[in-house]
Design a protein that fits this description.
Rossmann fold; alpha/beta; 6 helices; 211 residues
Length: 211
């Protein structure tokens, strides 16, 4: 788990008007367990933009998601608790996945199934959280079907998928010679991230201004 010091729990209940608002906490979830994958690199870039926008960030890479037990099995571990606790304390999420046979990776789906542990939370599942989506797939059709399935799952978890999602064709170049995302890719990732952080701030400030 890679983190930028998430030091305070996040309340999703309205706060008193005029109360100081803590920075939003954005959790990134990567759905590829391949070391150095394009999916994780793009997610890392998006989280860096979130940090520039004033958010605290936390990332669960695909390698870390791979340590989660299969959902429904009786076993549990520290990664399971850390993952669900992080989501419970998140203001917003960035989820990135490769497209596998028209849908999200099984690694990511298993992780999202573990959010059933939050069914009785004050903010159940992903309720009240903006969720920015990043999909990489070898072809536009695969990217489109993966995005639809991922959005459907986020809706089922009561999350708010952002209006814009970054659907990226990995059959085409994504990165420049310097290793950074190409300008149009960076623009798309920044837009997704901005919608997540802006929604988190709007929701927090809705009850913060004095009447």
């Amino acid at each position: 788990m890679n983190e930028a010091k998430v030091t305070t729990a996040v309340s999703h209940a309205p706060q008193a008007r005029g109360a100081a608002q803590p920075p939003p906490v954005v959790v990134g979830i990567g759905g590829s367990n391949r070391a150095g994958s394009a999916t994780d690199r793009l997610l890392t870039f998006a989280l860096e933009r979130a940090a520039e926008q004033g958010a605290k960030t936390l990332m669960f890479s695909g390698a870390e998601l791979g340590l989660l037990p299969v959902y429904g099995s009786p076993s549990t571990n520290e990664v399971d608790s850390a993952f669900t606790d992080a989501i419970a304390n998140a203001s917003g999420l960035l989820i990135a996945t490769p497209g596998y046979h028209g849908g999200m990776s099984g690694l990511l789906k298993n992780a999202l199934d573990h959010l059933e542990a939050l069914r009785a939370a004050d903010a159940p599942y992903l309720d009240g959280r903006a969720v920015g989506l990043i999909v990489t797939a070898a072809g536009w059709q695969a990217g489109g079907t993966t995005l639809v399935s991922l959005r459907s799952t986020v809706h089922a978890l009561r999350g708010w998928p952002t209006p814009f999602a970054a659907t990226l064709n990995s059959a085409e170049p994504l990165f420049g010679s310097d290793g950074a995302p190409l300008p149009h890719i960076a623009e798309a990732l920044t837009l997704v991230t901005s919608q997540v952080t802006e929604f988190a701030r709007w929701r927090r400030s809705a009850f913060a201004s004095p009447q």
